[in-house]
Amino acid sequence: MLGIIGAMQMEVDALKGLMTDQQVRTISNMEYVAGKLDGRPVVAVVCGEGKVAAAICAQTLILEYNVDRIINTGVAGTLCDALGIKDVAVAQDVVQHDMDVTALGLPLGQIPSLDVLKIPCDKDMVAALERAVQEQGCNWRLGTIASGDMFLHTAERKEFIVRQFGAIAGEMEGASIGQVCYLNHVPFAVLRTISDDASGHAPASFEQFAGEAAELACAIVRRFSALLEE
């Protein structure tokens, strides 16, 4: 079963409108909707903001629903010139840019209990996601997505994250979901639509953009789900 973690309610609502045989449960104040998307079993949930909420959500999907794959979707700020507003970032790997135990002699971003700095996304899922994105005809890039419990709003922080990690986009959930999946040996992927330039400047018509981003994410996830079965 595929677990779908959406950062925006609009995304999950769009998917719910297409799902059949729905069964809804509320766990830890999060609504999990299990059902079939184009005939394939999935469970979709809005995780809320930040790494803790996202981690709770991912672990619940694994323990309560026995998902064997997880995809995380949402919006992000661009950290590279190649991606502008409404473009798409696909994670090759994820890193927590606000994890700092350098005083212990470890590199910035390193989680002491893990044997990797950047947590790799599943190669087969990434390949399916790349193909699904390409078929939508949008501008996109593959690379590192950096997560942290902060809204990126200064050029200085943006430049710092790029310099340290070579990230193409920044957000608040993907790397914590990656950590949970890595520890549980569950394949995962992360997809982000660019909502701002990571300096605090979001589109003036953000509500309209959010709707367009949700529609795009829904289309990509539907195609991605189908490609996983091929």
Summarize the structure in words.
This protein has 230 residues and is of the alpha/beta class. It is 36% helix and 31% strand. It contains six helices and ten strands. The chain has helices at 9-16, 51-65, 123-136, 155-165, 174-184, 206-228; strands at 2-6, 19-27, 30-37, 40-46, 69-78, 88-96, 119-120, 140-147, 167-171, 188-196. Strands 5-9-8-6-10 form a five-stranded mixed beta barrel, surrounded by five helices.
Secondary structure: elements and pairs:
Layout lengths: L1 E5 L2 H8 L2 E9 L2 E8 L2 E7 L4 H15 L3 E10 L9 E9 L22 E2 L2 H14 L3 E8 L7 H11 L1 E5 L2 H11 L3 E9 L9 H23 L2
Parallel strand pairs: 1-4, 1-5, 5-10, 6-8, 8-9
Antiparallel strand pairs: 2-3, 3-4, 5-9, 6-7, 6-10
Helix pairs in contact: 1-6, 2-5, 3-6
